[in-house]
Amino acid sequence: MQSGTRTGAMLGDLLKEVPEDASPRVPWPFANPRKQVALENKFFEEGATIHFERLQPLQSWAGLSGLNMQMRTNFVAANVVRLASEANMRLTQTEIDSIAETSAKNFKRGAWAAPTAALFAGAAFYHGRADYKFPFFKPVGRAWFHPQAFPTTRWTILRGSSAILVWHAARWLAYYPLFKFATTIFYSSIMKMSIAADVVKDTRLARVQDAILHRISPNSPRGRRAQQAHDQSQAHVGQSESDQRDETYRRVGLPPPSPEEMRRFPRQSQTPATASSGQGDAQSPVDWASTERQQAPAPSQSSQSSSWGDSELFDDDASPVSLAARRAEQAGSAAQQSAPGVSSWDQIRRQAKSATSPFSRGDRSGQETAWSKVQQEASTPDRGRERGGSSDNYSYSETDEKSQAQKDFDAMLEAERKGESGSGSRWR
User: Fold this and answer.
1) Given its phi and psi angles, is residue 136 left (phi above 0), alpha (psi -120 to 50 degrees) or beta?
2) Residue 151: in which H helix or E strand, if any?
3) Does a structural domain hold residue 388?
4) Region at 352 (left for phi over 0; alpha for psi -120 to 50; beta for the rest)
5) Of 275, 358, 274, 359, which Cα lies nearest the Cα of 324?
6) Does the residue 271 lie in any domain?
7) Does a structural domain hold residue 357?
């Protein structure tokens, strides 16, 4: 009954957010509609309320004990709001029903406080009837007192048996408030302990129990259940995201990634890809939020550069040979050039005869001729359209190709001869 008083402080702030003409869906008996709406908005989930028509009714004689339906409504609502506030959560309809049931049941017990106080007051009245004993006071032997004169011998209103009856009635009325105060405290304690026991035993309030215990003692085993429940809910959300991702893979005809791949991909996506000899273009791992992205391999360092060294800024992405393979071959060519006793003519002859030389593939990086570019665009029309936006295809006869290739080779030899003739130190 005292819980309703403690909720008055918070109602002031809650009522500021509720319009004056607010009306609840299910009105509570003898309750202020505006206050009811404020409490429901703050502590109950959407659509939840206290159904007083489903609760146990008061005893027919409860009115003689000073209890009424308005007090019952305040008591039940105060207990529901108190537990919601202690748990720091909005209650579901099932949880509200459980708390309301145990509150209404225990409120009926409070009706027995007055009869119990009257019984104890009658016992004390009967025990001190001989000397007209009052609580902490005994009038027998005093000059102004006489059992047949009320209230005093000097100023008498009633005499005889009427005065005796009034004296005993006054004695009972003096005892009753004391015992009523004691029994009220006793029954209030019984009601609180009974409500607490019902909350612990009722499985419908497991979520409320865990939340309250977690706030009181977060490190206790039962107090950690609320945190575990929160973690499980987060894991359920993560599982839902995983299911959605797997479903996306199935729609495009790809197998879903395994958990090991999921754990490995985040680490790989943060590590730059490195080029290795004999491998194709390095690709980044699959990013679940986007499509696959092709990454350029890191440039390999070399103390010497070949005569036709690649430049990362001006690399031809349309080349059918990967950048890593070209750099590996250029590193081998540089090693051959540095070998003693090998002339430039020997190096040119080896490169011309080699099946993997850049000339045989039509790949000269930054120095490739316009003819080789036309050949590459003609052989890869899709890539040409993607890079340059051109959709034209060209066809040439085999004789023209051989003739043009011979001209390019002779021009390269002539350029090499002119370039080396300036130094003269390497020609013998």
Assistant:
1) left
2) strand 149-151
3) yes
4) alpha
5) 275
6) no
7) yes
Domain count, the chain: 1
User: What is the rounded distance in angstroms from the CA atom of residue 186 to the CA atom of residue 191?
Assistant: 9
More confident residue, 348 or 334: 348
CA–CA separation, 42 vs 195, rounded Å?
Answer: 22
Does residue 72 surpass a pLDDT of 80? yes
Interacting residues of 18 by C-beta distance below 8 A, sequence separation 6+: 34, 37, 38, 41
Choose among 247, 246, 267: nearest CA to 257: 246
| Range(s) of the domain holding residue 385 | 323-421
Alpha-carbon span 59 to 107, nearest angstrom: 10
Span 341-350, pLDDT tens digits = 556 667 676 7
Long-range contact list for 403-411, CB < 8 A, 24+ apart?
A: 404/371, 405/371, 408/369, 408/371, 408/372, 409/352, 409/359
Could you tell me how far CA 78 lies from the centroid of its own chain? 30
Determine, yes or no, domain membership for 27. no
Which token pair is 328? 């590996």
How many Å separate Cα 322 from the centre of its chain?
Answer: 46
Q: How many CB atoms lie within 10 A of CB 4?
A: 17
Do the beta carbons of residue 191 and residue 110 sit within 8 Å?
Answer: yes
pLDDT in tens, 391-410: 444 555 777 778 888 888 88
Q: Which residues contact 285 (CB under 8 A, 6 or more apart)?
A: 264, 265, 268, 269
CA distance 121 to 133: 12
Question: Can you give the pLDDT at residue 186?
Answer: 96
Nearest C-alpha neighbor of 98 from the set 39, 58, 48, 62: 48
